[in-house]
């Protein structure tokens, strides 16, 4: 994978974590146990320290960066959706940052909170635990339900399992020229969008 030392600091990756070969890690980056770092994620620890704590994930096209003397942290079981930007902030334990959201310097996303897709969390904002925030700029919308927090936890466990699957079986290959008869699908019962979960399980 593109992994770079700068000024004598090199990334640290726990052996049980999976970092895709097309992710980029530079400098003061700490990847904890059971983490998953997706393709094209950029973790630039050339100014401030970047930390993914145990069981967290950062998905495709995400960016992590921060100012000198700061830590940008995703706490245990944090979940960072596709295309999100984290800059000098802290994401609390078991919190979720939605796709293409931006979290600015010194912002704190509380434990088990959810930041909606495309939200802009301004510098210094503190989001209390178990709240939903949305908008540009982001505002607190409401408390999260137990179902929503449970759905988030299930999704994060799916990414922890993906780290295991990727370490075991993901490898470069030559593509087929046509689809084979009876091509199998991935069997992942219960892994559904929240909107579908609410339809079947109530709000």
From TrEMBL:
Signal peptide extent: none
Gene3D superfamilies linked to this entry: Hexapeptide repeat proteins
Domain of life: Bacteria
Cross-referenced SUPFAM superfamilies: Trimeric LpxA-like enzymes
Any Pfam family hit: Hexapep
NCBIfam families on file: PaaY (TIGR02287)
Protein name stated in the entry: Phenylacetic acid degradation protein
UniProt source species: Azoarcus indigens
